[in-house]
Design brief:
This protein is of the alpha+beta class. The protein folds into four domains: 131 residues, no CATH class; 44 residues; 209 residues, no CATH class; 152 residues, no CATH class. It is built from 20 helices and ten strands. A six-stranded mixed barrel has the order 2-3-8-5-7-6. A hairpin with a 2-residue loop joins strand 2 and strand 3. The two termini are 45 Å apart.
Length: 568
């Protein structure tokens, strides 16, 4: 998925690059038409160039990919993702797939600019004006609105079903639609973003602002890649903040016990479970068992609990049925499973156990998502009847003496080194830390897509400097200093980066809210929009844009004045 995201972001950069190249070669392509080149030949020449660029870049990318794989392996291990022991494998099919994908994405991304090239009339060879004009803004708006609306509909259907394929296609539709609609707002938004820079930096900032406003289509295309990257980051920020808040809330709504005894690895021993329950000050205890079973033909996890003091240690928020059904040998399921499987109280469902074989259980109740017991719950009596001598997974303890009892339980289990005793607050922190660790890994992988987008900004600015060689030379001739030239290019980059970040954050926030809303039944009950984090993303984007402009700005400042003025 992350590889696809990077390719998708890269496709925007490739499209923008070939659009600029075709624009810069308007006269050349028109002259080819004058001397007899057909539309088909011009089209093929642009695609052939794209294929050659894609092939060379893909070969380089394969080498860089091996280095990236080493770093990715270290990154995954740093975030606690267990990987099989062994060396990295580089197979022949990796070369074939890498070259095919690289060349294919490049050629597909160049089709639009190639079609634009064949529409260049021969008379354009006599026209000195730039070609960067959006000749059909109404058609662009109609296509963009249609793609965006279709993407929203598919995203909504995909989140409701759920169907990850529709979610992916819908997201692509939204991003493409937004990229097509962005030129309509590029001029006023770029002007608003650049106004403070113009006041702060003087004439260089004013020129940078005007350069971004002069070509809204190019501004939007350049910012599109960064828009996609920041949109995904913003969506994950909304999802992550909501998930972290919901995790804390779900623990509060799942456990009423004061202490949770579990094993840091493996299972608890029966002796440890009994010792914890026998500590003075423990008023109620519930033993939790967990093992695999087959439910409705799919492998799932079954939780068993002792029912004597269940109400004192565990919170079951029932939507149908009653916890008393556990004592009658019936199965309780969570509301997510009930909805997805279309089950209700009283249904008989097929199950299968490794030791006792196939059986059927009656659904006696449906509860809301619970952070501890997961999707399927039975009494310890039913659990022990189907599993031979299972070890407890955890013990929930209700106490009457607070921290003193917790220390006493810890002392009683000192002889068991793999046992950990957690208060409810500590258990919440552990769950939140696990969520944040996963989100950190996702952010790190999404950073690769943002890096690709920044390369696109560098690329566009370099092409822009090349295209405006004569303009920059004239500015230098009338007194603009090298430092002011660098400032002008950097201000353009900052405006581009902030423009892409703002649109991306808006789209990503909407997608994140839609994702959170669709997961209400899966336990994400709280919706949080982390405004400080989103503002920080925009600020980081501006700083990264400033960094991305360093090379193009230096190149522009080093242009020879006389050679630049003489450039065609």
């Amino acid at each position: 998925m992350f590889a696809f995201i990077s390719l998708f972001v890269g496709a925007f950069t490739i499209f923008n690059t070939f659009s600029i190249i075709v624009g810069q070669r308007t006269r050349e392509l028109a002259l080819l038409r004058i001397v007899g080149a057909s539309r088909r030949q011009v089209f093929r020449s642009v695609l052939a160039e794209a294929a050659a660029v894609g092939l060379v870049s893909s070969v380089i990318g394969l080498g860089l990919g091996v280095l990236a794989a080493v770093g990715l392996e270290a990154l995954l291990r740093a975030f606690g993702v267990a990987l099989p022991v062994g060396s990295l494998v580089f197979e022949a099919r990796t070369v074939v797939v890498g070259l095919a994908v690289g060349v294919g994405v490049t050629v597909v991304s160049a089709i639009g600019p190639a079609r634009r090239a064949v529409r260049i009339p021969p008379v354009a060879a006599l026209d000195d004006r730039g070609p960067d004009r959006d000749v059909s803004p109404r058609r662009r708006f109609a296509w963009g609105a249609g793609m965006g609306l279709a993407g929203v509909v598919m995203l909504a259907i995909g989140l409701a079903k759920p169907a990850i394929q529709l979610v992916g296609v819908g997201s692509v539709g939204i991003f493409v639609g937004a990229a097509m609609l962005a030129p309509a707002v590029a001029r006023p938004v770029a002007g608003a973003i650049g106004r403070p820079l113009a006041r702060l930096l003087g004439e260089p900032g004013t020129l940078g602002r005007e350069n971004c406003m002069r070509s809204p289509l190019r501004t939007a295309q350049t910012a599109a890649a960064l828009m996609v990257g920041l949109a995904l980051v913003a969506a994950m920020a909304v999802f992550g903040a909501s998930l972290s808040r919901s995790t804390t809330s779900s623990v509060d709504q799942a456990i009423s016990a004061d202490l949770l005894v579990s094993a840091s690895s493996g299972q608890l021993s029966p002796a440890a479970s009994a010792a914890a329950s026998a500590v003075p000050g423990v008023t109620a205890s519930t033993v939790v068992y967990r093992s695999g079973f087959e439910f409705d033909g799919a492998l799932s996890t079954l939780t068993g609990v002792s029912t004597a003091h269940l109400a004192d240690t565990l919170i079951l928020r029932m939507t149908a049925g009653s916890p008393a059904a556990l004592s009658q040998g019936e199965l309780l399921i969570d509301s997510t499973t009930a909805t997805s499987k279309h089950l209700s109280v009283g249904n008989m469902v097929p199950v299968k156990f490794a030791e006792t074989g196939s059986s059927t259980l009656r659904i006696g109740g449906i509860y809301q998502a619970n952070a501890l017991i997961q999707s399927f719950l039975v009494s310890d009596g039913l659990f022990l009847a189907h599993y031979a001598h299972p070890d407890p997974a955890a013990v929930l303890l209700r106490t009457n003496r607070g921290a003193a009892v917790g220390q006493a339980v810890t002392n009683a289990l000192a002889s068991s080194p793999n046992v950990q005793v957690q208060t409810r607050a500590q258990f919440e922190q552990a769950q939140t830390a696990s969520v944040n660790r996963l989100l950190g890994l996702i952010y790190a992988l999404l950073a690769l897509a943002v890096l690709v987008a920044l390369i696109g900004i560098v690329n566009t600015l370099m092409l822009s400097v090349f295209e405006r060689t004569r303009e920059i030379g004239l500015l230098r001739a009338i007194g603009m200093r090298r430092r002011q030239v660098r400032t002008m290019i950097r201000s353009e980059a900052v405006i581009l980066a902030i423009f892409g970040a703002i649109i991306g954050v808006i789209i990503g926030t909407g997608m994140g809210l839609a994702l959170v809303s669709s997961l209400k039944q899966q336990g994400i009950t709280d919706t949080v929009v982390p405004v400080p984090s989103l503002l920080l993303f925009v600020l980081i984007a501006a700083l990264l844009g400033l960094v991305a402009a360093s090379w193009p700005a230096r190149r522009a400042a080093r242009l020879d004045v006389l050679a630049a003025i003489a450039a065609d």
